[in-house]
Amino acid sequence: xxxxxxxxxxxxxxxxxxxxxxxxxxxxxxxxxxxxxxxxxxxxxxxxxxxxxxxxxxxxxxxxxxxxxxxxxxxxxxxxxxxxxxxxxxxxxxxxxxxxxxxxxxxxxxxxxxxxxxxxxxxxxxxxxxxxxxxxxxxxxxxxxxxxxxxxxxxx
Length: 156
Description:
Elements: E1 7-8, E2 14-22, H1 26-34, H2 36-42, E3 49-55, E4 62-68, E5 74-85, E6 89-94, E7 104-114, E8 117-127, H3 130-155
Antiparallel strand pairs: 1-2, 2-8, 3-4, 4-5, 5-6, 6-7, 7-8
């Protein structure tokens, strides 16, 4: 996995880039990322659990992912899809404070490296603080670990 923790975005805020190559087709990974019943199985860094997911997969469609933290608190992540290019790319806004601060932006690329090998590139932009960037770095690493485990168990 390669990352670029301090890549500046167009707005001057920090951007985080995390990469992972997973043994699965881009189509299967895209589906796992965009179908709530699959996303709920692998989403979140351990020991966070995905307690719910709703996805309206279209430009302008909303999504909501509910994380349950180890202490029982819940944190909702939500936003709107700004780009849907099946099976190669998604872009969506990201906020944990609906109606509050400006949304961050996440782009996920599914770059096929063969029929059953795909590099996922997560670009998380408009991050306003180093503390938030570090939290996202940990979260994305954990999510990609979970996605990798999800597909390795499906292959077993």
